[in-house]
UniProtKB/TrEMBL annotation:
The active site is at E298. It is an enzyme of class 1 (oxidoreductase). One of its GO terms (biological process) is carboxylic acid metabolic process. It comes from Gossypium mustelinum (Cotton). It comes from the Eukaryota. The keyword Nucleotidyltransferase does not apply. Coiled coil: none annotated. It is found in: Mitochondrion matrix. Possesses activity on acetaldehyde and glycolaldehyde in vitro. Belongs to the aldehyde dehydrogenase family. It catalyses: an aldehyde + NAD(+) + H2O = a carboxylate + NADH + 2 H(+). One of its GO terms (molecular function) is aldehyde dehydrogenase (NAD+) activity. This is aldehyde dehydrogenase (NAD(+)). Signal peptide: none annotated.
Length: 531
């Protein structure tokens, strides 16, 4: 089922589930206000058991012995101290991955055997949904219902998708102009270095690890320092599924140390990065200056959501709200520039404001909560600076704009009107719960304005006219266009951006090429019966 429809259904069911805590066995009344953010946070019912680096199949301390704290964004309190990997730990992890690829059983297994490991891993994900979702919510702040009922099923589905591809990767026999047998072989690229972000830790883990392993590669993955816990648990499950030692290595640490060491390592054959455009540029430069390893980049966005004059305003308001506020607005493809036709602008604005005021913000472990805290103090302060900038630049603050409570990193759902393209809130990726609503007159105008950005990740189009939809679909310079829907992330749909939103594609069949080399093999034919 598509992500958008799952979430819509989930939120509808939440209206009937007041007083129920998601899988944690305690009853608290949920109301659709910000009151839940001010209550004492729920204590998760699991222990954090995996905080070390995973290298060559074993959980080990960092070479330096250093650790760093990972925090609960609901309170700012420390959840656990995690091993802090640096360049020496990246060296150890790459050595293990190199040996596993050059000498180990993984690339020498049949593709069918590799697929069976991945299928078992998907089953284990389904069996451990509560533990994984709890860690994800605790470390990241996203609603537990979103993690458990939306993201975890998407993750196991994606792993099964790539498990199915493992034994269907093949080359071609090519007709020749001379008496030669021409073949192409698709080979695993080798050791894949992968760097994942904090906004969807487990989902990005799956997007990276699934296709890389299906193609027969080995992996060193660096997790975001803000959210290291769920990937370590998932990696443990993958080894339970039968993954040989050294095939997957997980290093928690910081970008300037562990991340840079991975990007520059001469024994890493391919690099994949998801994160900000600014950091993506650095990663690309480091890769080029080392061994010119190929790099896949999934970067930032400032995606337009276009509401046309024929739109059903009530439906458009709800979808635009979802497109922006989902995951606390911490989504690279968030519909963060809401363009509304002038004929329906006033009605849309009033209803968008009312919808934001109804949004339930609070402890993400409480059932029915739509919005949890932002990830950390740095992101919180960044968002608040953008809100102040919007006010100072002349945009109208319709609602929100303030902190909720004095503990944790909660922000009121915020809506701006009278936004202009030259304002920072219309140009920069805010990565927070801030909706900017802009007015347009005609299709040609909105196409021009929507494309006037350095980003090109995604766009939403809301119209009942197929001709309008087709015109916008072909004119918008973005990697994904959602028509009358948003954030639909089926495993088979490729995802990636134009311009400074990245290069290459995640998911789908297109992602496999990121982790394969194509080799041409030419053999002479002696007295062939045919050529």
């Amino acid at each position: 089922m598509a992500a958008a429809s799952r979430i819509s259904s989930l939120l509808s069911r939440s209206l009937l589930s007041k007083g129920r805590i998601c899988g944690l066995g305690r009853s608290v009344v949920c109301s659709y206000t910000t009151a839940a953010a001010l209550e004492k946070p729920i204590t998760p019912s699991i222990n954090v058991n995996y905080t070390k680096l995973l290298i060559n199949g074993n959980f080990v301390d960092s070479a330096s012995g250093k650790t760093f704290p990972t925090y609960d964004p609901r309170t700012g309190d420390v959840i656990a101290h995690v091993a802090e990997g640096d360049a020496e730990d990246i060296n150890r992890a790459v050595s293990a991955a190199r040996k596993a690829f050059d000498e180990g059983p993984w690339p020498k297994m049949t593709a069918y055997e590799r697929s069976r490991v991945l299928f078992r891993f998907a089953d284990l994900i389904d069996q451990h949904t509560e533990e994984l979702a709890t860690l994800e919510t605790w470390d990241n702040g996203k609603p537990y219902e979103q993690a458990a009922k939306i993201e975890l099923p998407m993750i196991s589905r994606l792993i099964r998708y790539y498990a199915g591809w493992a034994d269907k990767i093949h080359g071609l026999t090519v007709p020749a102009d001379s008496p030669h047998l021409l073949q192409t072989i698709h080979e695993p690229i080798g050791v894949a270095g992968q760097i994942i972000p904090w906004n969807f830790p487990l989902l990005m883990f799956a997007w990276k690890v699934g296709p890389a392993l299906a193609c027969g590669n080995t992996v060193v993955i660096k997790t975001a320092e803000q959210t290291p816990l769920s990937a370590l648990y998932a990696a443990k499950l993958l080894h339970e599924a039968g993954l040989p030692p050294g095939v997957l290595n997980v290093v928690s640490g910081f970008g300037p140390t562990a991340g840079a060491a991975l990007a520059t390592h001469m024994q890493v054959d391919k690099l994949a990065f998801t994160g900000s455009t600014e950091t993506g540029k650095i990663v690309l430069e480091l890769a080029a200056k080392s061994n010119l390893k190929p790099v896949t980049l999934e970067l930032g966005g400032k995606s337009p959501f276009i509401v046309c004059k024929d739109a059903d305003v009530d439906k458009a308001v709800e979808l635009a709200h979802f497109a922006l506020f989902f995951n606390q607005g911490q989504c690279c493809c968030a519909g963060s520039r809401t363009y509304v036709h002038e004929s329906v602008y006033d009605e849309f604005l009033e209803k968008a404001k009312a919808r934001a005021l109804k949004r339930s913000v609070g402890d993400p472990f409480v059932a029915g909560i739509e919005q949890g805290p932002q990830i950390d103090s740095e992101q919180f302060e960044k968002i608040m600076r953008y809100i102040r900038s919007g006010v100072e630049s002349g945009a109208t603050l319709e609602t929100g704009g303030e902190r909720i409570g004095d503990k944790g990193f909660y922000i009121q759902p915020t809506v701006f009107s009278n936004v202009k393209e030259d304002m920072l809130i219309a140009k920069d990726e805010i990565f927070g719960p801030v909706q900017s609503i802009l007015k347009f007159k005609d299709i040609n105008e909105v196409i021009r304005r929507a494309n006037t950005t350095s980003y090109g990740l995604a766009a939403g189009v809301f119209t009942q006219d197929i001709d309008t939809a087709n015109t916008l679909t072909r004119a918008l310079k973005v990697g994904t266009v959602w028509i009358n829907c948003y954030d639909v992330f089926d495993a088979a749909i490729p995802f990636g951006g134009y311009k400074m939103s990245g290069q290459g594609r995640e998911k789908g069949i297109h992602c496999l090429s990121n982790y394969l080399q194509v080799k041409a093999v030419v053999t002479p034919l002696k007295d062939p019966a045919w050529i």
